[in-house]
Amino acid sequence: MKIDRVELQRLLEAYRTEQAQPERAERVKERDPEKDVTLTLSPEALRLNRLREELRQLPGVREEKVQELKEKIERGEYRAEPRKIAEGMLREYRLDRRV
Fold it and tell me: In this predicted model, which residue has the larger pLDDT, 6 or 94?
């Protein structure tokens, strides 16, 4: 799945907002006929679950962009820009290292 800048900014902002909130653990109680079981999730686990859910809601493929590029390639109008490709790869690498 590819995440564009807008979606990336939204995720980073959500992460920053989560970081700014006071950390607290949520307790979930499940009933077992034989005993009571309490499960405690760490604040980090709760944040990861929320971020996973946000990622699931993002579109996997931008169909309109794929179609536009296919048409340009077919017409011979697509020109790859190696510098932009390299810059994008470096940006993704840096982001991966930060996260």
Answer: 94
